[in-house]
């Protein structure tokens, strides 16, 4: 199996071969679709840093995606609703098993959640927040390509998230790179 390694930005791949899909769900969906059409991999692995909702995995933890969801932050915050919201997706368990880490539910939003009350509400149903996971998973589902995501927790979602992300991203990106390199996956 030839697996395409993707990340939102090149730095998150830890120097391993692969491609950036872009930051945020729109850019990531378009970037992933372009890569899938051009490279036709037999699987896709997305790596990246993420935030944990309160009560979720600790900073520094690695998790594979299990269930993946998408929500509009306005709707998630109780300020609106999304008609015909996208259905949850499931990551490929065979591809995810290469990492030997627990699975976590991952929510993708169009923006990083900075409100503590909204983060607590989202944490009732989801473990992690990542801006690109659902978008890449949806592009893979559309193309019939197995998808997995390996995410490293850099912060707790909420008002202090950006400062924590900046402080922890280097060590978490390095841990992601080591985990992928040790997985035995054939990247290409």
Low-pLDDT runs of 5+ residues are none
Main sheet summary: 5 strands, mixed, barrel
Q: What structural class do you assign from the helix and strand content?
A: alpha/beta
In CATH, the topology is named Rossmann fold
One letter per element, helices H and strands E, the order comes to: EEHEEHEHEHEHEHE
Rg, rounded, reads: 15 Å
Question: Globular, elongated, flat, extended or rod-shaped: what is the shape?
Answer: globular
Tell me what portion of residues adopts beta-strand conformation: 25-35%
- CATH fourth-tier homologous superfamily: Nucleoside phosphorylase domain
Q: Which range best describes the helical content: under 10%, 10-25%, 25-40%, 40-55%, 55-70% or over 70%?
A: 25-40%
Strand order of the largest sheet: 3-7-6-4-8
Architecture, according to CATH? 3-Layer(aba) Sandwich
Structure in words:
There is one protein chain. With 188 residues, the chain is α/β, with parallel strands linked by helices. It has one domain: Nucleoside phosphorylase domain (Rossmann fold, 3-Layer(aba) Sandwich). It is built from six helices and nine strands. It has helices at residues 25-39, 73-76, 93-96, 116-122, 133-143, 161-182; strands at 2-7, 19-20, 43-52, 62-70, 89-90, 103-108, 128-129, 147-156, 186-187. β6, α4 (116-122) and β7 form a beta-alpha-beta unit. α1 (25-39) runs parallel beside α5. The model has no long low-confidence stretch (mean pLDDT 94).
